[in-house]
């Protein structure tokens, strides 16, 4: 029988990967359905029913249709939570708050600084064949350094971002950072030893190792 | 038990987002005013609370939180989980829809509104030029967004469902300033969006917080944040 859970979009897409990492962490069975961008399938009536903004990922659980990767991720982690896989910590006010804080930090501080480097060095050259805009890269790296200082200070205090437990906040850092590590700027993380060690622990998680193998680089 | 403290300047949309949630939750709190023009957010005592040097910051006993939507979630999780679609009467589906529309607010709505506020309100007072191309592009994005909201609100009273949630409330603070610009009329083409906005404005929590948010962020009266 086909799995009830469906994710729409390719595994190599960063925001699709954001959802897949949650599914892999809880060990839920799912079907990955590709979206044909060349045929503009993301703007087709069928896909717009799943995601009215015509974007990926979209997600289906029976009759429930969801979009926005972080919302999908939370639904999965909430529904399939076990004592071994409690990555939102919603049973504890203080822990849940720290998960939310560092999830927001990824969305509003870390990602805006890091993702332009990924776009300029990996994604745009692969999709558009454009040369890297070095000014954008340099400005982003400067912002990223400032952000990594904060992450470094935090990871002095605890093994993971929300506390001494891995959480949704850590998982959210995975997809774009994975591609950043394929750019010439990966050695930047060596300047932040606690961040580097935290990244290596993240990459050692079975769910992440499995997903990383699937995320074929764009070229 | 010490009341909750919120640090920042009340004209900030991010600060106001948190204040509306505190008002809706019916919680006692104290605003600790800070000065943006005085650089209070860059001082060591504030960096100790928020190493990113931003506001708002919420202190509740030993807990110090930042990022306005994380603070909003904490307030409702503690006092009124129904605003997150959680707790008694909540469900996996409802909480998922609340999360979806809060993400839409954060990643679609706010990025479309911010440039309009900057170019149409703030730049006037800081001596910067208004870039009409940026404004037009942002208003265009917002119109497309409101098309989606209009369709959504045909099926439910509020964005996440038939109950008011943090997703609706989160829109108030930046919309308040957008609706003070010459582009307010944009919502007239979306009657359900307009009605939804007016329902938000009618809430006592929103009225109370809005009283501290002059349409020019305080620049005109010399009360620069």
From TrEMBL, chain A:
GO terms for cellular component: cytoplasm. Pfam families: GST_C, GST_N. One of its GO terms (biological process) is glutathione metabolic process. Residues 92-219 form the GST C-terminal domain. It catalyses: RX + glutathione = an S-substituted glutathione + a halide anion + H(+). PROSITE patterns: GST_CTER (PS50405), GST_NTER (PS50404). Its EC number is 2.5.1.18. One of its GO terms (molecular function) is glutathione binding. CDD domains: GST_C_Phi, GST_N_Phi. Gene3D superfamilies: 1.20.1050.10, Glutaredoxin. Residues 3-84 form the GST N-terminal domain. InterPro entries: Glutathione-S-Trfase_C-like, Glutathione-S-Trfase_C_sf, Glutathione_S-Trfase, Glutathione_S-Trfase_N, GST_C, GST_Phi_C, Thioredoxin-like_sf. SUPFAM superfamilies: GST C-terminal domain-like, Thioredoxin-like. It is an enzyme of class 2 (transferase). Conjugation of reduced glutathione to a wide number of exogenous and endogenous hydrophobic electrophiles. Belongs to the GST superfamily. Phi family. This is glutathione transferase. It comes from Oryza brachyantha (malo sina). The lineage of its organism: Eukaryota, Viridiplantae, Streptophyta, Embryophyta, Tracheophyta.
Automatic annotation (TrEMBL), chain B:
Residues 91-217 form the GST C-terminal domain. One of its GO terms (biological process) is response to herbicide. One of its GO terms (cellular component) is cytoplasm. One of its GO terms (molecular function) is glutathione transferase activity. It comes from the Eukaryota. Conjugation of reduced glutathione to a wide number of exogenous and endogenous hydrophobic electrophiles. Belongs to the GST superfamily. Phi family. This is glutathione transferase. It comes from Oryza brachyantha (malo sina). The gene is LOC102705775.
